[in-house]
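We give the entry.
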Amino acid sequence: MIPKISRGSDPTGLVKYLFGKGRHNEHANQHLVACSDDLLDSFGFDGHPDESYAKIGERFDRRYRVRERKGDPFPRDRRGRHNPGGEHGKDRVWHCSLSIKAGQGILTDGQWEAIVRDYLKRMSILPDDGAAGVTWLAVRHGLSRNGNDHVHVMVQLATDDGWINTFNDMKGAQKSCREMERERPELVELDRSNTEGDVRYRYAEWRRWAEWKAREDYDGPLPWSALDRDGRVRRIAAVAAETMPKQHVGRIVEACAKASRSEDEFIRRVRREGFSIDPRLRKGAARDSFDSPDQVVGYRITWRSRDGWTERFNASDLGQDMRLKELRDGWTHDARSESLAVQEWRASMENRPPFLADGLERRPANLSTHDMERLIDEAFHVAVDVRRGEGDPEAYDEALREGLRVFDRLSERYGLGDGFSAEIMKDELSAETADAIGDDGRDENGKAHKP
């Protein structure tokens, strides 16, 4: 994690900034993830303010006002030319942002809350026993302009008993973050994902994608060109905060590589995910006549989104560990595997179906974690569609038919037995619906249906 600390004396202004659009309209989905008990009433269940920024600032400053009335200024207030008026409580508001490196991963709100509380205890800001007496809050935005998942922590240094000592806090922040990276499971897991951390990241590429995606998805009353700059920038920032194509492709290709036992299996797994994979041949090797995988020195992935965007990535773009030379160290090498690899590379180059129709990847025992996630996700959406159609027999039948087609396709793709035949089930579903509708053309709920 990357900590960045600053101090100030305007809690209302800081709250307004944290819940506002940001200096460059980069803030998206800003919401509270945690706070002290004395601030809970100021926010709704959705994490958005229920009171004005000024009211929240006043509540945030209550403990400080007590110290002010007692004539007890913060011992580390700025002095001299940095505070010519001798203002009381000049540095009473402590602000720290905690960031995850771009492309390394994205945490949940629950994970961020646990991390913030742990961090504040390690920094000796919150007591270990969780007792009250400190006012603080943590606000999360979408990804930053540079692609970092991050949270802002805001602390009132005035407490019921005096002041929080923040001496040498920048050094303590680095030490606390390094300890948490070694000890907290969610941060340890992020650090293990080498591919996501090593994906070559260029903001200009991501920005071009976000601009195109925002324009394609826009369906407002005015044409895109008629929107003012602020309106366009906010929509682009919202898309950029939620979509990172290169990291998405890198994660899936990494999953395919780790699940594969041989080069030919890796090629088939990548193609099964809807990507195109093309070999980079050694100089002098012809595309239509190479006969050894040793003549393939790299590969390129082509990704196409459902709405028409295309991006191409070399293996090195997805991380040093994803280069073909590195991947081959973990695969089997025998005459059969090398022969199949050549055939699969040729099939991929010529956009033909895989050479081997029943490889190891189509055996249920070899399903990867990514495969299981895909199956569960598809099954969940089928269940939701069927549930939505329960009140309408026609919609219910169509949802069932579509669900069976999905399961049939998944069964074929992942080799899960004989699968389902949607065409065979179609007549049975229609017969069941006919039984549910009476002779008068109405179902048991009295709703009329067309014959």
Q: What stands out?
A: The beta strands are 2-8, 31-35, 93-100, 135-140, 149-156, 276-281, 296-304, 310-314. The radius of gyration is 29 Å. DSSP finds 16 helices and eight strands in the chain.
